[in-house]
Amino acid sequence: MAIENVLNSGASQTFSSYETKYLSYLVNQAVRKKEITGFKCSSIGPIISHLLFADDSLLFAKATPSNCVSIRLILDCYTKASDQAGQWNVTEKYLGLPCFTGRHKRKIFNDISKRVWDKIKGWRDKFLSAGGKEVLIKGGNPVDSYLYYESFLAAKRTSERKFIDSGLDSDGESSQDKQKIHWYKWSRLCDSKGKGGLSFKDLETFNKALLAKQCWRILKNKNSLAARVLKGCYFSDREFMEAEIKPTGSFIWKSLGWGREIIVAGSRWRVGNGSKIRIYKDHWIPRPTTFRPLSPTFVDENAMVSQLITPSGGWNI
């Protein structure tokens, strides 16, 4: 549910934190009394009853009349105590993206592309210089597109063609009789100006980098809510880097698997006691390209580097 903050701009951050804690207290109390049934992604994953963000709050409950009544009572109590107003007509999106993607993956990106075009087309008849139009196109991406790129895998054809159509061809749509500009291929336009390009952002690389950053957060913050939810669903009995990306996985999980390729290609193990490093499967030897032993297998393929280290710290080879 989305709560619109209508407090005065001078309200202190301390007071806002008390409001957030109060809403969390109300929800937790309802869960303890079993008035609300939280959402669970897997049998061993955490139970989620609410997520509180800076401007919005997401409440999870079972789709039953009793749960819905309990949520409405909580929100009524919260709005009265905090002097806020409930915004009931905006309950499907967070930061411009729908809370649930479903099977219509392209529709999410099409909405963003439409907002880019709406932003650009208002300026297409303005008398802007070539440099001004370039800055306009580069700055045309809405903020929520970055949230999309760090959460979902954008199809290559979609991410390139949509922005070309909405941005680069904007002059051609101002008049049907006006001849459109025939642009170079996208990879050429993304080159620096010194190489003959226009220094546009390579959206595919940008998308993959943001997804890889999310994967790195999962690796470093294993106790975070996102990491625990994904672990319960996809890699409960193994590490994140060893998890299998199955076709039946969710859209977000398959997107993270694509971004994980950067970490797999660029990460190296720093050898300590070697108890977690596999000799033939992990990257741990300072040798370019492979970073693995080239010698024939003389021990079990799942053997650990610790088997090659003596108690005194030397190599047992």
From TrEMBL:
This is Reverse transcriptase. It comes from Dipteronia sinensis. It comes from the Eukaryota.
